[in-house]
Amino acid sequence: MKISELASATDVGVPTLKYYLREGVLHAGEVRSRTQASYDDSHVERVRLVRALTGVGGLSIAAVRRVLDVISDPGVGPTDVMAAAAASLYEPEPEPEVPEVRRAQRGASKGDDSSARELVDDLGWHIYPDDPALTALDEAWAACSDAGIGLDADRMRRYATSMHGVAETDVSSVPADPAGAVRQVVLGTVLVDPVLLSLRRLAQQDVAVRAGAISPPPTG
């Protein structure tokens, strides 16, 4: 198909398709002449994946390129694809230098408070030392401390144990094909997070009712 037909098949404008080609997130078509190339179903699939990653996934083109580089490596298995896709969700955003320094000082002032690294080590989890989720957890944990919300190590362990069960469900549903794995990890995380949050709030209500902390809902 021509690029105009690819645009119609994916509902993506020709200028955007040409941008994808320039940025390397869409592979080149088969050259037919000096000014024309032919595209096929693999291009349709790739465009839809890029749109999903940049749209619902909220990833930058640079992050999408990194994920697609992993997909394109024939020696990479589903686990490596999952790791690359998960890491892309923590793409760092530019920040002014001063807030960054203040944040680092806040983390240093926690004293004997437990860190994310200590928590996962205590749980026996197999976590890469440079995983950005560790930094994200440390910052979120510190923010709770700053706000006066006590998240001691025991409470965090209980949270972590519950989330490990969620992770087992997540990983067991990841398909074997690389593109499908990326969709499941990135889009699944983005779209399922609100589901998990809603379930948490509903579960809190049920636990509170069973404990007699709030009145039960009306029946019938």
Automatic annotation (TrEMBL):
Disordered: annotated span: 90-115
Glycoprotein in keyword set: no
GO molecular function, a single term: DNA-binding transcription factor activity
Superkingdom classification of source: Bacteria
Keywords, comma-separated and alphabetical: DNA-binding
InterPro entries reported in the protein's UniProt record: DNA-bd_dom_put_sf, MerR-type_HTH_dom, MerR_fam
Comp. bias (Basic and acidic residues): 99-115
Boundaries of every HTH merR-type domain copy: 1-70
Keyword Nuclease set for record: no
Any Pfam family the entry gives: MerR_1
The protein, known as: MerR family transcriptional regulator
Organism (species): Janibacter melonis
